[in-house]
């Protein structure tokens, strides 16, 4: 057939699909192909991502009452249905007719504006692109956004495939799902949503777009129509979990488990909800059930390890992380988590080793570099610590925690300009960062720039009037400036915040000495020694003043 004959015959079989989001705004457009006399239409499932409503258009006709018979996101296919007799179907080609070099024509709605545009090309390859074992048709006929779900036709006007994707870096590399696969996927005995596929689609879209209340409502409708499908209840559980309605989430997971008691992922999900409810024994029980069902599930060991780490059972956490690594040695996160646990039981050499393994597997994660830097800092290897903080900041210049730690370490090297740079950069990110203000103030204080230090400490007190560190620092500066009455005022404020600070009692005693109040000074020194006996050798002569 000539191209104009193909177009004339196929024109009534290719439609436009328009989708709308949960606020009623137009979201996307695509194409669809009519494949049966009873009104069945095939398209790509990705056309319907994040939508709540959609309609089929053809010419001046808009059809909003559209059934969803089934959809398979793993194949990027969706099967719709409208009333019979509205559109003419296309015949499907046979598998043996799909050959490299054969002429083909794309017919769809590019950009959602140019209804039923036809273009010519050839089949240029047959490719296994993904893990779903389907062989995709590679072709050269031009397509663009809006063609998704459109028709790929042969010169007999038979449907060769459903156009699905393009390679953004090549103008003539496009792919289609073979038409003969449609009958394999959408057979009557495989329609697995019991007539409720539309509710499942909308519920999943609502969940993906954080419309959790609507998601729960749609999953409720879906579960009533498909009460024997366990994933109806797991979807609802996710929605309720995000709404922090944990009891409802647990009720739905219980229902799912009653339908699929051998599915370990359900126990892992329920354990995560129990953990949020602080029901630790129930959570631990479910993690262990999942592991018992599948002892080779690395994720189960990883999640139970996380649980143990949150309840400070770090030896058990390390054991589970080690098992997860044994089962899946290529997951950098597991090394990172085991290193984190080693760090908190002061096994810094083991933590260092695991952080390096995590970095080897994923060198672009800034937090891996940061935590390794923190490990070196704990080992008093400040040079290597700064090097790792530098690596973290090279990957993310706004990594606040790396800026903070590096700024503190610059101070240990008396490199005050670099310390000021890091703390100032932190304050550019958040001008009310109390830690950054205090440490910049301390840096100015060490530099003898008391005016700038006073400014920063007072900014801290404007945010938090009971900030002990800043009250103590101001008291120390007034003492250094020999303004003893004001120094005493601030150290007394500091002691109201922290009555157990031996440093403040020592400073208070020193101030009382300068004010020639030896009796009060001796009391302060005695209190300091009672809080920190190591101070006795330095203060014993001052304590004896009282006697």
Calculate the terminal CA-CA distance, rounded to whole Å.
Answer: 117 Å
Strand content: 5-15%
DSSP summary, beta strand count? 13
Q: Major beta sheet, specifics?
A: 7 strands, antiparallel
What percent of the residues sit in helical stretches (DSSP H or I)? Answer: 40-55%
Overall average pLDDT:
92
The radius of gyration computed from the alpha-carbon positions, rounded to a whole number of angstroms, is 34 Å
Strand order of the largest sheet: 5-4-1-2-3-7-6
Structural class: alpha+beta
Taking pLDDT < 50 over at least 5 consecutive residues as the criterion, the unreliable ranges are: none
- Sum up the overall morphology in one term: elongated
Count of DSSP H/I helices = 23
Description of the structure:
The chain is of the alpha+beta class. It has helices at residues 3-10, 179-185, 197-208, 212-225, 230-242, 246-259, 264-276, 280-293, 298-310, 314-327, 332-344, 348-361, 366-378, 382-395, 400-412, 416-429, 434-446, 450-463, 468-480, 484-497, 502-514, 518-531, 536-543; strands at 14-20, 26-34, 40-43, 53-58, 61-63, 67-72, 77-81, 103-108, 117-128, 135-139, 151-153, 159-166, 174-178. It has a 7-stranded antiparallel sheet. Strands 8-9-10-13-12-11 form a 6-stranded antiparallel beta barrel.
């Amino acid at each position: 057939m000539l191209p104009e004959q193909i177009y004339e015959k196929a024109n009534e079989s290719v439609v436009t699909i328009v989708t709308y989001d949960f606020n009623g705004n137009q979201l996307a457009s695509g194409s669809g192909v009519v494949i049966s006399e009873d009104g069945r239409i095939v398209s790509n499932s990705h056309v319907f991502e994040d939508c709540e409503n959609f309609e089929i258009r053809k010419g001046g006709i808009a059809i909003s009452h559209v059934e969803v018979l089934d959809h398979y996101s793993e194949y990027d296919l969706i099967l719709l249905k409208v009333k019979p007799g509205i559109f003419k179907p296309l015949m499907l080609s046979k598998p043996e007719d799909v050959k490299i070099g054969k002429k083909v024509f794309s017919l769809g709605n590019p950009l959602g504006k140019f209804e039923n545009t036809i273009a010519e090309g050839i089949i240029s390859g047959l490719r296994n692109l993904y893990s779903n074992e389907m062989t995709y048709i590679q072709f050269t006929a031009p397509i663009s956004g809006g063609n998704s779900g459109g028709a790929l036709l042969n010169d007999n006007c038979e449907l060769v495939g459903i156009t699905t994707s393009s390679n953004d870096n090549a103008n003539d590399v496009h792919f289609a799902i073979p038409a003969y696969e449609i009958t394999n996927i959408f057979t009557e005995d495989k329609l697995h949503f019991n007539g409720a596929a539309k509710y499942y689609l909308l519920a999943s879209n609502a969940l993906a777009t954080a419309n959790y209340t609507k998601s729960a409502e749609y999953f409720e409708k879906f579960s009533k129509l498909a009460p024997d499908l366990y994933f109806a209840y797991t979807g609802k559980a996710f929605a309720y979990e995000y709404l922090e309605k944990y009891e409802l989430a647990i009720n739905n997971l219980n229902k799912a488990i009653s339908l699929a008691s051998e599915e370990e992922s359900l126990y892992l999900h329920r354990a995560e909800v129990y953990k949020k409810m602080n029901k630790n024994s129930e959570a631990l029980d479910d993690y262990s059930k999942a592991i018992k069902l599948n002892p080779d599930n690395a994720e189960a060991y990883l999640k139970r390890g996380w649980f143990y780490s949150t309840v400070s059972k770090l030896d058990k956490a390390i054991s589970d992380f080690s098992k997860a690594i044994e089962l899946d040695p290529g997951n950098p996160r597991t090394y990172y988590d085991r290193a984190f646990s080693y760090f908190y039981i002061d096994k810094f050499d083991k933590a260092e080793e695991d952080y390096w393994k995590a970095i080897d597997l994923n060198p672009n994660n800034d937090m891996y570099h940061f935590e390794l830097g923190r490990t070196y800092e704990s080992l008093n290897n400040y040079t290597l610590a700064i090097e790792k903080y530098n690596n973290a900041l090279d990957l993310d210049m706004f990594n606040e925690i790396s800026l903070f730690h590096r700024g503190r370490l610059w101070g240990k090297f008396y490199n005050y300009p670099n310390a000021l740079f890091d703390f100032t950069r932190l304050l550019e990110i958040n001008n009310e960062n109390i830690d950054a203000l205090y440490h910049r103030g301390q840096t100015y204080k060490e530099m003898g720039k008391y005016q700038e230090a006073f400014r920063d400490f007072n900014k801290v007190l404007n945010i938090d009037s009971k900030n002990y560190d800043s009250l103590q620092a101001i008291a120390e500066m007034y003492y250094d400036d020999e303004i003893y009455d004001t120094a005493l005022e601030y150290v007394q404020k500091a002691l109201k915040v922290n009555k157990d600070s031996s440093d403040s009692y020592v400073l208070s005693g020193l101030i009382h000495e300068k004010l020639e109040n030896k009796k009060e000074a001796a009391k302060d020194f005695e209190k300091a020694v009672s809080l920190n006996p190591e101070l006795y050798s330095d203060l014993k002569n001052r304590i004896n003043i009282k006697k």
